[in-house]
Design a protein that fits this description.
Chain lengths: 245, 93
């Protein structure tokens, strides 16, 4: 395809998208105004289920089916990336020497921050229903925190701390757990992912019914998925060599 | 508050332009992380801490890291191929 043809197709398609986007957003409430129809519906629904973090109520209760779709996308993309990045027949994995090139100060900060980050990640997952955050955010914090071990300069230490198999299991168990909770909800409330647990007291950690449970399950899945994903990128970069290289 | 939103949006636009104008992928990875931080500030200003947390983890840590690792792997591959072409070993001849 010539450059001119590509430009014409882009202008046509871009023009259609631009017009459709403007038409679609014309009737939205204006930016910064006090008129929020969605808020007026979702906040009372969240409070009714004793969920202090309304965003989590939307994610894991009111629109939990959307989150289920997103989690499926996540696990599908992790599986796809791992399949693409696995060492091919011409490549071999080699043992990585412990180089330890990082500055002493970098190592110190890394070792101090590692436990703090892990505790913070668990905290963000555990309070998904009550304070900002949730399974996804906390899971990403946990997975990133584990990789501080790489920043402090020890790839073998990272390998020892995160044997991959448990994380692979965590990824799929998290996704499966979400579906199972959804099916239990279907059985007991008549709606897939219906909130079937007691709601508890607003603002307490053991409130919100299934919101907190689903948030935790997503946390497990995201930690597993992110660690497996990053590890296959690391393996390609650090440990994989072409056989005749 | 509106002024703060306007300033933050401008900073986001500038950082986004910087990502596009960065001439090499490895520079883009770093500017992308900076762009992520400006987005985090915007989300906090717009009172969306949940989204800010996600963006902080994904946009400023995971994605730039994956881009950097990919770029280094591609470089390494290219270097090895060039070395092999320059000095053919006995097996090849």
């Amino acid at each position: 395809m010539t450059r001119l043809a590509r430009l014409i197709i882009f202008l046509l398609a871009g023009g259609v998208v631009a017009v459709a986007f403007v038409l679609a957003t014309l009737d939205l409430p204006h930016f910064g105004s006090d008129h929020h129809p969605y808020r007026d519906l979702s906040v009372p629904a969240a409070v009714q289920h004793h969920t202090a973090n309304v965003v989590s109520a939307v994610n894991f209760d009111q629109r939990a089916i959307d989150t289920f779709g997103e989690e499926s996308i996540l696990i599908a993309s992790v599986v796809g990336a791992v399949a693409l990045l696995r060492p091919s027949r011409e490549e071999t994995e080699r043992r990585v020497p412990d180089l330890g090139r990082a500055l002493e100060s970098t190592r110190l900060i890394g070792y101090v921050l590692l436990p703090i980050t892990l505790v913070l990640g668990i905290d963000v997952v555990a309070h998904g229903g009550t304070t900002p955050g949730g399974g996804f955010q906390g899971g990403v914090v946990l997975a990133t925190g584990l990789h501080l071990l790489y920043v402090v300069g020890s790839y073998p230490a990272l390998g020892r701390l995160r044997p991959l198999v448990p994380f692979e299991i965590a990824d799929s168990a998290g996704a499966a757990g979400f579906a199972v909770i959804g099916l239990i909800g279907l059985g007991s409330t008549g709606a897939f992912l219906g909130n079937f647990l007691p709601f508890g007291q607003l603002g307490q950690i053991l409130s919100t019914g299934t919101v907190q449970v689903l948030s935790g399950v997503v946390g497990v899945e995201v930690v597993g998925g992110m660690v497996v994903l990053l590890s296959s990128f690391f393996e390609q970069e650090i440990a994989v060599r072409p056989e005749d290289g | 508050m509106t002024a703060l939103v306007a300033v933050t949006l401008t900073v986001v636009a500038l950082a986004g332009t910087a990502v596009v104008l960065a001439d090499a992928p490895e520079r883009q990875a770093v500017t992308l992380a900076v762009f992520g931080v400006t987005l985090v500030v915007l989300f906090v200003v717009l009172q969306a801490p949940d989204v800010a947390l996600s963006e902080l983890g994904i946009g400023t840590a995971i994605v730039p890291l994956m881009v950097m690792l990919t770029i280094r792997t591609v470089w390494k591959d290219k270097q090895q191929r060039e070395r092999r072409e320059q000095a053919p070993s006995d097996e090849d001849t």
